[in-house]
Structure formats: C-alpha cells, structure tokens
Amino acid sequence: MIAIIAAQHNPNQNHLLAALPPEIVARLCEHLELISMPLGDVLYESSGPLQHVYFPTTAIVSLHYVMENGASTEIAGVGNEGVVGIAVFMGGNTTPSLATVQTAGYAYRLKKRWMLEEFNRAGGRRLGAVQNLLLRYTQALMTQISQTAVCNRHHSIEQQLCRWLLLTLDRLPSNELTMTQELIASMLGVRREGITEAAGNLQRASLISYRRGHITVLERSGLESRTCECYHVVKKEFHRLLCAVGNR
Prior knowledge:
- The chain has 248 residues and is an alpha+beta fold.
- The protein is globular.
- Helices cover 46% and strands 21% of the residues.
- The chain has two domains: 2-126, Jelly Rolls, CATH 2.60.120; 156-227, Orthogonal Bundle (Arc Repressor Mutant, subunit A), CATH 1.10.10.
- The protein is built from eleven helices and ten strands.
- A hairpin with a 5-residue loop joins strand 4 (60-66) and strand 5.
- The longest helix is centred in the middle third of the chain and has 26 residues, at 129-154.
- Helix 6 runs antiparallel to helix 11 (229-246), helix 7 crosses helix 10 (220-226) and helix 8 packs across helix 9.
- The strands form three sheets. Strands 2-6-4-5 form a four-stranded antiparallel β-sheet. It has a three-stranded antiparallel β-sheet with strand order 1-7-3. A three-stranded antiparallel β-sheet has the order 8-10-9.
C-alpha cells in the first residue's frame, strides 16, 4: 500500500522543489520522506523547536497565532507553492505561530540537518540555489502575512472570505473545498454569523454552493470581482519572486 501511494506522488508536485536544479532535487530526494497529513494534525507548536521542514504537495497548512485566551487567527496558509518551517533556515529555530493541517493530503518532510546543509551550500560569493529560492519564498510569505493583517483590518468579511477562498483554490486541483463555516470563521478571526451572511450572499449570487461543510466554487471570476486587492497583491508577489528564480 505504501509503495502504491508513493508512486502517485512526486517531489515536483511542490513548486519550490520543482524550481530547483535536477541535481539538487536528486540529492534532496535521498532524504525526503513522503508523509500523510490528516486534517487538524499539528506540525509544530507555538515556541516549540522545529526538527523538520515540510513541502506540501496536496495538503494545505495553516499558520496561526494563538492568543493567551486561546483565540487564534490564521496569519498565512502554505500549500504546494511553499514550505512550512522557515524558522529552521532563517536561524530562529522556533516561532510564535502554530502550524496545523487545514486541508488533508500529503507532503514531503525533510529533517532540519539536511535542510541546513543544503541551504548553506553556496559557491564563492554567490548564493546557493536553495538559499536563493527559499529567501525569495520567505519574502513572498512575509507579503502574505502582512497583507492578511491589512485585509483583516480594512476590508469586509465578504471580501476576506473571497480572498481566502481564492488563495485556497490556487493550492487545490479542483474547485471543491471541505471546510465548515465555523472553521473559516476561526481562520479569519471573525464571528461565525459574519461568515454565514457572507457565504449566503455569495451563494445567492450563484458564485458558490455550500452544503454540510462542502463548498463548491461555481464562478471563480465572480469571486475575483468581489474580493479586495489583497488577493492580487499576494498572488502577484509570489509569481514575481518565484518565477524570477527560474528566469535567472
């Protein structure tokens, strides 16, 4: 069974790994471990030491900040475009955020030792290929985090919901999401009633269909017309920074 599952997955399903030169991917593949990520699985706790980095392929991971009273809000999401655990190669080794699986799926796990060895591999005064790529990804992730803060402060719940749906769709192979309104409200840090009203507006406009924790996007262009500029800022920055690596 394990062999069958492994045959259905490839490291190149993660966009960061796919952007690396083949010889580096071949070197990393000796240490990459394909793992299942069940919904709600905790990859690392707030302020806990990080022992691995994770390259999602079909899973989506949510990065949360948890308040002292237990309330939490998503500050960023990571799917097949990125890597979870940037504190490993940024030198901090711990982070105040909490990483949990938002959408079940698979990822490749890499031990801290091998990540640091590859990250620090450079030639002369030039940045190594892995270092260059991951620093650019980190800048793009910082853009997502800062834009999320701006969006939560200045835009309507409906605009925030559209942004969140679009960013999630970008990481999935289909237009269907398994997600309850309660969980979305927790992600966005708003009341469930606000999500219910916003989702109802989108459903009446025939942009989405919602039933028993399943959301189907019927008209993506309609969501894009209703979202705020935050979605486009984040998407443009990821494209600019990560495509620049391949065009060097």
